[in-house]
Amino acid sequence: MAAGDMASTRLGAGQQHLHPLKRRGLVLLRLTAIVFAVLLFCEFLIYYLVIFRCSWPAVKTPTDAGGLGTPEPVLRAMFLADTHLLGAVRGHWLDKLRREWQMERAFQTALWLLQPEVVFILGDVFDEGKWSSSQAWADDVGRFWKIFRHPPHVQLRAVAGNHDIGFHYQMNTYKIKRFEKVFNPERLFSWKGINFVMVNSVALEGDGCDICSGAEAELLEISHRLNCSREEHRPQECGDGQRLPASAPILLQHFPLYRRNDANCSGEDAAPPDEKYTPFKERYDALSQEASRKLLWWLRPRLVLSGHTHSACEVLHGAGVLEVSVPSFSWRNRNNPSFIMGSVTPTEYALAKCYLPCEDTVLTTYCTAAGGLVLLTLVHAGLVASPFHFGWNMLRKFKTT
User: Fold this and answer.
1) Measuring CA to CA, which of 20, 325, 387, 389 is 20 to 30 A from 172?
2) Residue 351, Cβ neighbours under 10 Å: how many?
3) For the whole model, what pTM was predicted?
4) In whole angstroms, what is the distance from residue 158 CA to residue 275 CA?
5) How far is it, in rounded angstroms, from Cα 93 to Cα 87?
6) Cα(60)–Cα(74) distance, integer angstroms
7) How far, in Å, are 1, 92, 321, 355, 379 from residue 390 at the CA level?
8) What is the pLDDT of residues 242-298, one digit of tens each?
9) Could you tell me which of 88, 153, 132, 70 has the C-alpha nearest to residue 346?
């Protein structure tokens, strides 16, 4: 055999050897690209796609009704509840990683897209605050500020829930002070002429304990100040202190006001049918009737927002006072978490709900992608016929017959 023929034979053999390696490299590159695209969609892009559909509700102002003068300022407020950051005792690392990443991406995306001015968390910020050690508490607080970090111009306020300080029989001054050290202890928050009253509903047991008596005394003082703000001519007993805006307050708390159950609650994020008719236990599932009457009488709110149940509900109390129970913000408590967006003025308000991505949508996407990757790998290995070739062969057979 001539030397030229031998060289061309070796070159051809080398090309045949390199061709399968090149194919395997291309397949590996495709699989990597698919994995990256699925991760990017499920862990980042889906939050933007879902929350982008949310918008602030329009609220009526005096100028909208043909009034004259400067329009009332509108405050954009986010209300979310029951984040339940897992602790050192019950929190599995994978559960923490998954659910806390979900809340971080949802919150940061909402901040960027919606630009709220204030964020209220309606209790059960932490899952194990009722029994966590000082070190575990510090760790949980550090993780909280990482997840719910926000720019300085956005205010974040929170009320205590039973998982933050314990139920009445677990609650003590140390746990309350520890919580208030992280979050502003003010019970009365006024901004843009709007009054928010933030209630420690765990302390409204009504048994005369020191903490309970102090909480009621504080609410009575707030009630006095609000009543004075409503008087056109300031009575002498109101004193010379700073006057509050003459606006009926918005009541924020963890426990809902008393209701028998969730039987009248509706919507896709209401309680499941098998739980709707379960009677609520006073001072455990909701405030007592007595505490609820006191709050409505003392504060005369125009709107109440609460958490605790992890499900949505709207209830009318007394003379038409609306209470909105805000669902949990975490996948750990429900498949379709959400939060409330409020456009609020001193005299009006409008609410809208913003849903977050459903957990089962993300899981289905991952499972579908995993199945596709397995199929591609098997086709490349020759263990399964390509669906496209199989379909083409079937079509050819059909035509020939």
Assistant:
1) 325
2) 18
3) 0.88
4) 28
5) 10
6) 10
7) 44, 46, 65, 42, 11
8) 788 889 999 999 999 999 999 999 999 999 999 999 999 999 999 999 999 999 999
9) 70
